[in-house]
Each structure stands twice: as structure tokens, then as C-alpha cells.
């Protein structure tokens, strides 16, 4: 074969260039050369006149990587400005100036100054020192793509061809004598601007050279997120997670959520320090946890219950509260019920709960409270009670299937924490992983994995709702103002979360700052967490709950199928497929459990409430042709608008049994006639022999022989086989045409009810 040969030298050069272009550092790529400066010669200095969640996160990340941290200004009043879209911060320089006097002569000491409320470490001291040494400068400041606070100074900055051009004072590192000399230049006021001070030093060529200052142009040490959100991603590799700047292919160590990027920093903070794994969750999830098994007296908890709309399965919801694995003497209840429809449920619950829980406050629909007013009142129920250690808010659409939910949340020892609950079969949940620019829902990169349990841990999130736990001492301190559920025109849950994130409440209401900017203001309040470390429960769908019937939950098979099954399907149903409990009392007549007691009772109640029984007449306008050869005294499912529900029930729960007992037959799950029959001596006591117009028939007993009626049953004439003791909630299944001629045996007294479907006619 012919072709042009490449000279060996050029070939090697070409391969080298291709390798260089394709190379991208892994998470450990910057850890190859050890630092010549010992790690114990690095001192981190920060300023915090108060402690909040951001401060504790910073300190825990520092502890994780074994940094030595000195905190300045603790217990002092902050005089450095409000820090929101304004100049200020000079107090930090003044405190540094005072502190550096004791380190000024330590030539081998390296000082790293950083903000703390919005910073996390992603690497350790050795990495920081190694990268600092490689700069060959005495002081290195963080670099930024945004010039602040005086844009007129842009032309005075040195030209930078690759990397960020402007100084960011949120982080810098240098040898102690040089840092000391730098801050000794400060002679301004506490509310003057720290970044402007450092900027003027840097843009002065003489001072820049004298102090030997450079910027971390490619974000190797410091990463300011503001203006750089498109550059920075979270990378996972070899069981580690790390924030990576994809523009410069660097792995910054100190991540600063400056400006409007606090929520993004919170997201990164869920994964760094970099030992996060899919199996174990975040590295800092278990700091300062509480072991309730080791306490003699459990914390006092006030539970706030909110019924804001007609809600399916409410009695079960209320009973689940009593089944929480928590001492009842440590519980108090506040219940707000907005719906007259549910007053009967609340009364039944109160009559039961008052024997277990000593304090129950009920606020009914007659008070005509708004959601915000009711939730403020519920929060006050705990806030004003000095003995209340926790406030547990639960909406009525939350199904808490884990009785240890309350204990699990308390043990995490967070100011605000929620259990993850999701809507069955959907990605709908009670939290948002991110916010849009206007403060509404945005899907975070990890949202689906968290909801589906592919990533497990305790997650710092910007929004949670429906069910959450708040520490009582938090309500009486940081959240002592009462109106937490009111904010502009926001829904109460959004108002709560925004107020908690920003800790500014209505003080912003009259602010001239545009609403979009307000939404993006740096959150300076509390972190809110969601836990998916356990299966806690699910959310109900309430949007299409029709209350026009007597037993409205019967119609919830589509909206809330899991809850419908739990309430209405016999608890032994699954044993049909695992333990072979299907009986065969007559040839090809199969007998199995299908309905719960509650399903039977509610179906009978619904039919009697409707009340239009057919009377067992031959002429029947409800059926095709208008004539019934073997009539029964019945009501069709279609008459009470239950037909679609019933057919779905057949497809979901009858069809699998059919396949088991009639091997190879796949039913279409369709039936034209679905009805409830009523037998009594006064109306219709029996039914003459007949074949059903079906491929197969189901016949479900809806009440108890011996208790509700005597007699009754079914006889299959060809086999001379009778079943005279039908079990409530159990169904017969038998062929319809040709083989199974049968009759209804006489009821001697009482009333017998059965549900019948002629399937695959």
C-alpha cells in the first residue's frame, strides 16, 4: 500500500500535541507534587461576629480537612455594612490588622484569609500550600470576572490574556510578614469597603511589586461563583466528588458562594468535602447528631396538623399520627381544619386521641383563617411554649408510613429538616433542589437521583414543604418574628422558605430594589435540609378529590392507587401468589380474598345511600335490549359513577388471579355488567338456575353470613356442589357460559349483598 510517510520527529510531536489537547485532570491530578511547606505552617483566619449555619458548615469542612482556623470578631457588633449590594467590610481588615501583629515576624507561617458564611473547603492544607508555592508570589488573591465596587478602575488592572482579571477580597493567601505589612496600610473606617482597599493596593504597580501580589487567575485555589456558574461543575470520580472549573481545568480548594450564588454553594456543599459517595451520602451529614436511645426523657414536640382542602383517606392520616414511635406524654397537638366536610373525622379522632395526648388544640372552619394565619398560629403554639423543644408541621396530604420519622429527624439535630415524601409513581416531591431567577421551581442536577434514592443523604435545599421539623429554640431566637408565612404575594410555604433563607421578612417590602434582585439576594439565614436516608412515606394527590359521594375514597383508585389498595384490598391478597391460598370448593370454582372489610362496608353503604334498587324486574332500561331473563334486585356500578373505577379494579387485581387459576388465559378485563345484588326475604330471596353472559364471573361477598343474614349461597347444578358459607371480602371466580349452570340459594332472613361482574362477555 502506498502513502506519504511521516518523519519520526514530526510523528512524536503530533502525538504529544494530541495527548496535550485530550488531557484533562482527574480529581487527583493536582496532587502529584508534595508541598515543601509543612501543613502545620498554614493558619486560616476568618471573621465572624455571629455564628449561623453557614459558619458551622465552614468550620466543619475545615475540621474535616484538618485546617487550623482562627476566628476574629466573635461576640463583637458588626459595623461593616449590610453586605447586600453595597460597599462595606472594612471591619474585617481592621480585625486582620490587629491580629497580624502577633504573626508579623513568623516568616515561615502562611496565612489564608477567607470569608466563612459562604465558603466551603474542597481540599486540604497540603494542596493549598503546594498550589500557593507554585505561584512564586508572596501574596495571592482570589480572582473574579466581575469588577466590584468601582468599575471605573478596570483600565488600571494589568492585562490578563487567560484567566480572570479582577481582584476578589473574599480569599487570599500569603506569607505572614507580607500579609501583616499589607493590612497595616489600612487607615479607614469599619464600614469602608475592604475590596476597594485591596484593589487600590493591587492596581498600584509599585505596591503590587513591593508586596509581590498576584491573582489566582485560573481559580486553582479560590473559586468565586458569582459570574462563574457556567464554568463550574461537580465531578464524580473514584468515589470522590469535587468542584471543577471546566474553563481552566482546575480544581479550586476554597469555594466562595459570593453574591447571588448561595443556593449553588449549598448544592456544592452537599457533596464537598470530597468523600461523598452514593452509598454513604455527604461527608458532614452526621456532625453533632443526637442519639435518642441514650436519653432518659424525650424532647417535647408540638405537632401542627393542617387540613386545608378536602383530603382523601384523612382518618388513616390522623391515626398514623397516633402510631408514631414517640412517647405520647411528650406530644402536643395543634389541628387546623379548614373544611366542614372533615369535621366528623376530627371529632372521631379527638375522642380517641384525648386519652393519649393531653393537650390538643383544634381550630375549625368557623374561624375562617387563611393558610398563612393558621400556620403562623400553629408555629406560635410551639414558639410561645418554653417547654416545646421541636415543632413538627404535617399537612394532611402526607402519608407517614415510617413510625420512626419523628425520631429520625430529631436525631439529625438540624434547625429545619424535612423527610423526603414523594407522590407515588411520579417525580413530584416536597422539596426543590434549585430556584429559578425569579425564585420559583428549578430542577437541580441531582433532583431525580435524590427522589429515586440513587443518592442518599441529608441535603441542603432552598425549598421544602408539607412536612418538616423546626427546633423550638430556633423559633424563639432566629425565627422569633411571628409572620413567617406571609411574604409579598407568595404562597405560605414559599414565604416560609424565603424568610428562613434570607432572614429579612417584611423588611424588604418597601425596598426600592427590583423584585428579581431581591429574590437573588444572598441568603444569610438558616439552612433547610431534606433527608432521604429512610423511606418516610408519600404525598397524596388532592386535586381531583370529589366529595359528592358518601364514601369518596372509593373513587381514588386512579389518583392515589397505593392508598386505595391499602384501604380496600384484602391484606391477604398477595398471598394468592406466594402461599397458594386460593381454594377450589367446586370444580373450576376458585375462591380467594379480594376486598377488605372496609371496602365491603363502604360499597354497601354507597349503594344504600343511592337507594334506587331495580326490584328484580324483567324489564330493565339499563341494559341493551331492555329485558333481563334472570333479573336480580341490583344497582349497577355505572349508576353511581363507579364503573371506570370498577373496571380498573378488575384489570389491576382480578386479571392477575385469572392468569394464575386459568393458566394461559389472558383476560381483557372488560365487563358490560357490574353490579351489587341485594337479597332479602322481603324483596328477592333467591335466583333461579342460569348461565352468566361472560367468559368468567366474579362474585364477591360483601357481608357476613350468620351475622347479617342466614341462608344464601350458590349451587353449581352440574357438579351438585354448593357453597353455603361465603366469606366477607372473598370472591368466587368461575366460568360463565356452558359449564357452570348455577343458582342463588334462598336467604332465610336478614339481607345479603354481593358484587358481581360478567367479565369478557
UniProtKB/TrEMBL annotation:
Annotated GO biological processes are: hydroxylysine biosynthetic process; response to hypoxia
Q: Which Pfam families match?
A: 2OG-FeII_Oxy, GT_PLOD
* Gene3D superfamilies named among the record's database cross-references: q2cbj1_9rhob like domain, Spore Coat Polysaccharide Biosynthesis Protein SpsA, Chain A
Catalytic activity, per the record? L-lysyl-[collagen] + 2-oxoglutarate + O2 = (5R)-5-hydroxy-L-lysyl-[collagen] + succinate + CO2
Cellular localization per UniProt: Rough endoplasmic reticulum membrane
Note whether tRNA-binding occurs among the keywords. no
UniProt function note? Forms hydroxylysine residues in -Xaa-Lys-Gly- sequences in collagens. These hydroxylysines serve as sites of attachment for carbohydrate units and are essential for the stability of the intermolecular collagen cross-links.
> What is known about its subunit structure?
Homodimer.
Write the protein's name.
Procollagen-lysine,2-oxoglutarate 5-dioxygenase 2
Amino acid at each position: 500500500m502506498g502513502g506519504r510517510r511521516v518523519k519520526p520527529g514530526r510523528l512524536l510531536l503530533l502525538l504529544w500535541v494530541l495527548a496535550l489537547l485530550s488531557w484533562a485532570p482527574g480529581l487527583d491530578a493536582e496532587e502529584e507534587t508534595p508541598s515543601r511547606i509543612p501543613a502545620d505552617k498554614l493558619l486560616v483566619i476568618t471573621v465572624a461576629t455571629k455564628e449561623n449555619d453557614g459558619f458551622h458548615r465552614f468550620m466543619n469542612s475545615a475540621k474535616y480537612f484538618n485546617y487550623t482556623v482562627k476566628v476574629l470578631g466573635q461576640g463583637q457588633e458588626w459595623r461593616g455594612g449590610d453586605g447586600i449590594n453595597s460597599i462595606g467590610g472594612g471591619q474585617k481588615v481592621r480585625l486582620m490588622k490587629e491580629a497580624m501583629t502577633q504573626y508579623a515576624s513568623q516568616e515561615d507561617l502562611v496565612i489564608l484569609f477567607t470569608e466563612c458564611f459562604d465558603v466551603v473547603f474542597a481540599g486540604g492544607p497540603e494542596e493549598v500550600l503546594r498550589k500557593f508555592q507554585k505561584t512564586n508570589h508572596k501574596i495571592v488573591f482570589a480572582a473574579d470576572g466581575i469588577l466590584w465596587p468601582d468599575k471605573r478602575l478596570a483600565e488600571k488592572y494589568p492585562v490578563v490574556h487567560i484567566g480572570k482579571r479582577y481582584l476578589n477580597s473574599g480569599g487570599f493567601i500569603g506569607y505572614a510578614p507580607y500579609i501583616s505589612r499589607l493590612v497595616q496600610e489600612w487607615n479607614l473606617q469599619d464600614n469602608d469597603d475592604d475590596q476597594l482597599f485591596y484593589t487600590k493596593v493591587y492596581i498600584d504597580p509599585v505596591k503590587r511589586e513591593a508586596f509581590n501580589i498576584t491573582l489566582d487567575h485560573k481559580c486553582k485555589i479560590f473559586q468565586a461563583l458569582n459570574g462563574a456558574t457556567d464554568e463550574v461543575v461537580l465531578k464524580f470520580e473514584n468515589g470522590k466528588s469535587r468542584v471543577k472549573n471546566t474553563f481552566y481545568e482546575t480544581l479550586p480548594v476554597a469555594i466562595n458562594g459570593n453574591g447571588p450564588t448561595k443556593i449553588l454553594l449549598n448544592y456544592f456543599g452537599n457533596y464537598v468535602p470530597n468523600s461523598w459517595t452514593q452509598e454513604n451520602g455527604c461527608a458532614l451529614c452526621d456532625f453533632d447528631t443526637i442519639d435518642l436511645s441514650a436519653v432518659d426523657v424525650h424532647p417535647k414536640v408540638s405537632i401542627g396538623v393542617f387540613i386545608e382542602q378536602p383530603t382523601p383517606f384523612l382518618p388513616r392520616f390522623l391515626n398514623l399520627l397516633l402510631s408514631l414511635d414517640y412517647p405520647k406524654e411528650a406530644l402536643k397537638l395543634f389541628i387546623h381544619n379548614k373544611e366542614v366536610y372533615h369535621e366528623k373525622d376530627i371529632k372521631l379522632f379527638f375522642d380517641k386521641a384525648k386519652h393519649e395526648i393531653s393537650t390538643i388544640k383544634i381550630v375549625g372552619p368557623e374561624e375562617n383563617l387563611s393558610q398563612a394565619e393558621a400556620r403562623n398560629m400553629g408555629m406560635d403554639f410551639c414558639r410561645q411554649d418554653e417547654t416545646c423543644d421541636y415543632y413538627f408541621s404535617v399537612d394532611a396530604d402526607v402519608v407517614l408510613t415510617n413510625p420512626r420519622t419523628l425520631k429520625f429527624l430529631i436525631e439529625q439535630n438540624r434547625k429545619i429538616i424535612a423527610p423526603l415524601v414523594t407522590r407515588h409513581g411520579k417525580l413530584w416531591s416536597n422539596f426543590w433542589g434549585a430556584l429559578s431567577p425569579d425564585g420559583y421551581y428549578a430542577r437541580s442536577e441531582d433532583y431525580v437521583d435524590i427522589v429515586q434514592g440513587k443518592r442518599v443523604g441529608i441535603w441542603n435545599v432552598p425549598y421544602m414543604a408539607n412536612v418538616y421539623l423546626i427546633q423550638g429554640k430556633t423559633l424563639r431566637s432566629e425565627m422569633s418574628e411571628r409572620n413567617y408565612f406571609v411574604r409579598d404575594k407568595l404562597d405560605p410555604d414559599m414565604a416560609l422558605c424565603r424568610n428562613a433563607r434570607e432572614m429579612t421578612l417584611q423588611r424588604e417590602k418597601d425596598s426600592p430594589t427590583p423584585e428579581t434582585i431581591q429574590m437573588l439576594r444572598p441568603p444569610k439565614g438558616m439552612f433547610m435540609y431534606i433527608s432521604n436516608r429512610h423511606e418516610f412515606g408519600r404525598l397524596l394527590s388532592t386535586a381531583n378529590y370529589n366529595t359528592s359521594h358518601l364514601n369518596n375514597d372509593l373513587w381514588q383508585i386512579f389518583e392515589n392507587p397505593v392508598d386505595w389498595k391499602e384501604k380496600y384490598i384484602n391484606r391477604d391478597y398477595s398471598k394468592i401468589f406466594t402461599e397458594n391460598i386460593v381454594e377450589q370448593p367446586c370444580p373450576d370454582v376458585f375462591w380467594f380474598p379480594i376486598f377488605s372489610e372496609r371496602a365491603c362496608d363502604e360499597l354497601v353503604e354507597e349503594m344504600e345511600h343511592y337507594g334506587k334498587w331495580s326490584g328484580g324486574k324483567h324489564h330493565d332500561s339499563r341494559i341493551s335490549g331492555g329485558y333481563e331473563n334472570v333479573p336480580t334486585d341490583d344497582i349497577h356500578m355505572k349508576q353511581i359513577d363507579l364503573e371506570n373505577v370498577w373496571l380498573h379494579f378488575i384489570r389491576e387485581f382480578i386479571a392477575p388471579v385469572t392468569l394464575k387459576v386459568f393458566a394461559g388465559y389472558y383476560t381483557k378485563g372488560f365487563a358490560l355488567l357490574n353490579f351489587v345484588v341485594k337479597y332479602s326475604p322481603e324483596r328477592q330471596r333467591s335466583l333461579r338456575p342460569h348461565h352468566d353472559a361472560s367468559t368468567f364471573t366474579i362474585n364477591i361477598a360483601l357481608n357476613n353470613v350468620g351475622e347479617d343474614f342466614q341462608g344464601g349461597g350458590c349451587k353449581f347444578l352440574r357438579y351438585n356442589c354448593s357453597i353455603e358459607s361465603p366469606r366477607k371480602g372473598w370472591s368466587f371466580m368461575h366460568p360463565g357460559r356452558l359449564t357452570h349452570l348455577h343458582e342463588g340459594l334462598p336467604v332465610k332472613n336478614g339481607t345479603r349483598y354481593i358484587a358481581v361482574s360478567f367479565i369478557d362477555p
